[in-house]
Amino acid sequence: PYPPTANTYYRSCRGRTFISSRGLKFRAEVAKIVGKVKPIKCRVAVEIRAIMPDRRKRDIDNLIKPTLDALTKAGLWVDDEQIDYLSIRRKPMVKGGRLVVDITAD
Question: How many CA atoms lie within 13 A of 62 on its CB side?
């Protein structure tokens, strides 16, 4: 799925930061895709292809944090601290958008 940006993933109220409803929905979708897996424990390289949902101007760096947090919460790896290499590339628009994430042992 296409993630909410970091600007809309988190919300703040009375000094507390929490995940927005859009963020929680995204996390649930990612967890469903990941399924039940044994967490990766080695160092990894992550390459993200961001397929934009529309033609609006966007900062692609705002897609990284929600995506990595959702993958961590889904149990794909122990912690996103394991990432030694990270890249993100903008791809042509497709209605609805999506991310393609490739993970390899580093």
Answer: 14
